[in-house]
């Protein structure tokens, strides 16, 4: 069942505005009653007006604060936490690279373009030049596929052929090692112990990005095949819930994670954009509504995933693909939902460091905070900036 009554964000906004107006009218009325015999108006206490939403400048400040807290100028990658003693997990660096692309696409600021190229260099130096055959650096298939996705996207921005070459080679390596040619679907690890959502839906996304760039039909066909397997084995067609994994012939293992919902959305949207098949869009909406109505609280606030672990980055992935759905299906009003979440996180930020936390409903801790935990609200703010904001 739905967790309580899910009041649409726009209704909340109107109620807040109405309440503010009533307060103002009450203050004016009270002031008029307090006029003295000399007909001079007594000074009423000033009302504290709180801005309803963050703006574009705040979104930039949030990203810059994230960089200040976590970015290593030496390594050209991100630290795992504010102690700045160790670089974060390999797959999360690809997500942070995407965040740099988010802000560049929003602002077109050349400083962020330079950051995109620097992060490629940082990954190149750290991860054996993106040598996909190094089974020490790369030890599970989804780690590679997150980078393939980001490399393809970076090519779309920079037109640097090296990025495309690396993306194509990475996709081929994962496909050859992971795809089950007999039963379909992608294996998550080198031992082929199970087929997880975190490799199957990202494979569709990577294939679709490469198809959009190259127009090579093989990528589209592979995307369709993996998506169909995923829909049959990892997707609840009645409510949009995405299973985390399927091991052998066992039933799907259902665990709710926002990044699985997000990559399902992204895969479906990208296929819809190319094929114009509305069934893909229906799947994307169903997955988004499940996340909004079943995984979020009664006010629509997303779950606080990642109890001091890498799962803190999951909502950054969800944000990216929810934004794609919001663009192709604006009447879904996903932007209002996203802004509601990001605004709460921003209002609860650490005012000293300007960093945010994975639990949007609570104040960001003052001590050690992980980059994983701080990332998702930053991503939301780049992808969903309130209208008419400056």
Quickly list its features:
single chain; 390 residues; mainly alpha; two-stranded antiparallel ribbon; globular; disordered N terminus
Polypeptide structure, described:
With 390 residues, the chain is mainly α. 58% of the residues lie in helices and 2% in strands. It is built from 13 helices and four strands. The protein has helices at 9-33, 56-70, 90-107, 110-126, 141-158, 161-178, 197-214, 217-234, 258-275, 278-295, 314-328, 334-347, 371-383; strands spanning 71-72, 77-78, 195-196, 245-246. The strands form two sheets. Strands 1-2 form a two-stranded antiparallel sheet. Strands 3-4 form a two-stranded antiparallel ribbon. A hairpin with a 4-residue loop joins strand 1 and strand 2 (77-78). The relative contact order is 0.12. The model is unreliable at 1-51 (pLDDT under 50).
């Amino acid at each position: 069942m739905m967790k309580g009554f899910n009041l649409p964000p726009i209704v909340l906004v109107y109620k807040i505005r109405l309440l503010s107006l009533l307060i103002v009218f009450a203050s004016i009325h009270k002031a008029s009653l307090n006029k003295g015999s000399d007909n001079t108006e007594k000074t009423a206490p000033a009302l504290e007006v709180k801005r309803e939403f963050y703006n574009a400048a705040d979104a930039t400040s949030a990203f810059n604060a994230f960089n200040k807290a976590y970015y290593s100028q030496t390594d050209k990658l991100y630290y795992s936490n504010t102690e700045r003693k160790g670089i974060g997990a390999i797959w999360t660096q690809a997500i942070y690279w995407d965040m740099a692309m988010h802000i560049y696409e929003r602002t077109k600021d050349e400083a962020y373009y330079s950051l995109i190229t620097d992060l490629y260099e940082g990954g190149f130096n750290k991860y054996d030049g993106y040598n996909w055959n190094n089974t020490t650096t790369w030890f599970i298939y989804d780690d590679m596929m997150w980078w393939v996705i980001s490399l393809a996207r970076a090519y779309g921005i920079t037109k640097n052929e090296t990025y495309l070459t690396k993306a194509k080679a990475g996709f081929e390596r994962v496909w050859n090692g992971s795809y089950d040619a007999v039963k379909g679907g992608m294996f998550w690890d080198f031992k082929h112990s199970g087929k997880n959502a975190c490799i199957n839906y990202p494979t569709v996304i990577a294939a679709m990005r490469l198809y959009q760039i190259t127009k090579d039909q093989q990528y589209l066909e592979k995307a369709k095949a993996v998506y169909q397997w995923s829909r049959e084995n990892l997707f609840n067609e009645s409510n949009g819930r995405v299973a985390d994994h399927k091991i052998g012939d066992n039933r799907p293992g259902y665990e709710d994670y926002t990044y699985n919902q997000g990559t399902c959305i992204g895969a479906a949207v990208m296929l819809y954009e190319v094929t114009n098949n509305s069934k893909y869009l229906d799947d994307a909406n169903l997955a988004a509504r499940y996340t909004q109505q079943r995984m979020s609280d009664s006010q629509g606030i997303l779950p606080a995933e990642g109890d001091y672990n890498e799962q803190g980055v999951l909502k950054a992935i969800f944000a990216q693909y929810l934004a794609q759905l919001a663009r192709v299906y604006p009447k879904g009003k996903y932007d209002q939902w996203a802004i509601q979440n990001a605004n709460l996180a921003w209002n609860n930020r650490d005012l000293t460091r300007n960093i945010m936390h994975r639990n949007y409903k609570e104040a960001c801790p003052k001590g050690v905070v992980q980059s994983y935990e701080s990332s998702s609200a930053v991503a939301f703010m780049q992808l969903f900036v309130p209208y008419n904001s400056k």
